[in-house]
Design brief:
about 550 residues; alpha+beta; Beta-lactamase; 3 domains; 5-stranded antiparallel sheet; 4-stranded mixed sheet; 15 helices; elongated
Length: about 550
């Protein structure tokens, strides 16, 4: 009996010991789980609760081009972050770096973007180097289309940033959290953690029809020539805008610097400002005449160097006159007298009706809020001598480069309007299309026959007329029309130059519209820009 009791006692001791051992092992395992395996996670959680956040990545989704090349959030810059004033001062002494604004508040992180690599081991205590992703390209590529944000509110103020503000407000980002004390001051040399969120699978990005490489070609050409104005390039087959640029440009990270200036840096001149079209409007006059009198294409006109309507005299572009001239020659040489004579026969109302039919005097609606309608005369503005100015694209007529591109796209498609667009749709960061931008159905605007007549006349503009300075034989030639429009800018008279057309001459691929402010003429300023852009695009597509 005593032996049996002893065995029971021993069994209990063994079981108790095993239980204690298991508990001890579990405690050690749990401690290991917290202090080793989960230490970074809990440290990060603690720092998020009581730390100071420094953003390394923009709080907005990406804007992509047609090939999913990022147009935002693409550039990175190595940046030194300082947790206190002493580390900043020591860095400035060692590297002799200039910083515009020294923030003396110890509760804020100061940073300096690096222009060259440095030895991180030589950095003072409280200084850290990380790559920061920039929202905008350093060259501010496509700035007027992308727009800008109000940083303090992460709110889109213009362009695509404004149109898709709710979509682009992306809360997933990379940040550093620095440890702070009870007074919310950063602890020099204290703890920190880098938070890297995974790529979002939610629709927080936007894809455009823009082609990054063609956009660069356009902007480089405008900058090299120091041209103020706008350029648009559109795909003939799809109606998609592959490039849109406006000059002068602006810095999207320093928008406040332009609010009190009068150089119109913040205006997208491709869509937001309207201008007299000059001789480009002769296409509208010609099309309205062809609808009323198809035989007019075979007529001979006489130009004496001016036209007199009532008491108003309007000079031709050739002061001594062209003499007897065919419609084909009058169009290619941009004879004002001929088109004023045609305008008087057709009448103002029919010309303006054709202009409206071609997309002037109303928004094209490509999805950007800033687009303006331009101006077309109406009522009493159509009476009397006004037909003279209407026939040559002057007076009360104002159009945007986008509207001109829309007309030229219709002609390139033999009278069918393909509907311009600049937005493909809303996408996820990994490229999945969530909501595609739907365009209106294409429609025939002018007859195939009349479109071919204008096409033939525009080819002669390039071969023998005002656009003959171009050498585009290697890329298949081109069709187009020049325009030199008188305007008043800042109280002074000036001339704006136009050239809009498409290439190659047969089976065209691209429409290009060039608008240049304050120049001598369209043939001398806009034509060379068209030529160079067309050659560059052709070279890239080979």
């Amino acid at each position: 009996m005593r032996r049996k009791s002893k065995n029971v006692l021993q069994n209990r001791i063994i079981k108790f010991s095993i239980a204690v051992l298991c508990t001890f092992i579990l405690l050690i395992g749990r401690l290991f789980w917290f202090q080793v395996i989960k230490s970074d996670e809990y440290k990060m959680a603690a720092l998020k609760q009581r730390g100071k956040e420094v953003k390394l990545y923009p709080e907005r989704g990406i804007i992509y081009d047609r090939n999913f090349i990022p147009l935002t959030n693409r550039d990175r810059v190595s940046t030194v972050y300082f947790t206190d004033e002493s580390s900043l001062k020591e860095y400035l002494r060692n590297y002799n770096t200039y910083i515009k604004e020294k923030d003396k508040n110890n509760n804020r992180i100061k940073s300096i973007e690096l222009e060259e690599e440095i030895n991180e081991e030589e950095l003072p205590k409280g200084a850290y180097v990380y790559d920061k992703t920039l929202r905008y390209d350093k060259n501010n590529l496509l700035s007027h289309v992308i727009g800008y944000i109000k940083k303090s509110e992460n709110k889109g103020e213009s362009g695509i940033e404004k149109v898709f503000d709710e979509i682009l407000r992306n809360k997933k980002l990379n940040s550093i959290f620095f440890e702070v004390d009870n007074k919310k001051r950063i602890i020099p040399g204290g703890g920190y953690a880098v938070v890297k969120d995974k790529k979002s699978s939610f629709p927080n990005s936007v894809q455009l029809t823009i082609d990054y490489h063609i956009q660069k070609v356009v902007e480089n050409e405008m900058d090299s020539r120091k041209i103020k104005g706008a350029v648009i390039v559109a795909d003939v087959e799809t109606g998609e805008i592959v490039a849109m640029a406006s000059r002068p440009n602006f810095d999207q990270d320093n928008v406040n610097a332009y609010f009190n200036k009068d150089n119109m840096e913040l205006y997208n001149k491709a869509i937001q400002v309207s201008y007299p079209p000059g001789s480009l409007f002769k296409i509208v006059v010609l099309l309205s005449a062809l609808e009323e009198e198809p035989s007019i294409v075979n007529e001979i006109f006489y130009c004496k160097g001016y036209e007199k309507i009532n008491d108003v005299i309007i000079k031709c572009n050739k002061e001594e006159g062209h003499g007897y001239i065919s419609l084909s020659e009058a169009f290619s040489k941009s004879c004002n007298s001929t088109f004023i004579q045609i305008g008087q026969r057709i009448g103002s109302e029919k010309i303006i009706d054709m202009a409206y039919k071609l997309g002037f005097g109303k928004k094209i609606n490509i999805g950007l809020f800033e687009e303006t309608e331009g101006k077309l005369p109406s009522g009493k503005e159509l009476l009397g001598p006004s037909i003279g100015n209407i026939s040559i694209g002057q007076g009360k007529i104002e159009v945007t480069p986008l509207q001109v591109t829309n007309m030229m796209l219709t002609l390139a498609n033999e009278g069918v309007n393909k509907k311009l667009s600049i937005i493909k749709g809303i996408v996820t960061e990994d490229g999945y299309m969530v909501k595609e931008f739907k365009k209106d159905k294409e429609e025939r605007i002018i007859s195939h026959e009349n479109a071919r007549i204008v096409d033939d006349l525009m080819s002669k503009v390039v071969k023998t007329g005002t656009g003959r300075s171009m050498d585009l034989e290697d890329i298949g030639g081109a069709c187009g029309k020049t325009g030199s429009a008188q305007a008043v800018l800042n109280g002074e008279k000036t001339i704006h130059g136009w050239f809009s057309g498409y290439f190659p001459e047969k089976n065209p691929k691209y429409v290009i519209t060039v608008f240049a402010e304050e120049v001598y003429s369209g043939s001398m300023s806009a034509v060379p820009i068209f030529e160079n852009i067309a050659k560059e695009i052709s070279q890239k597509n080979r």
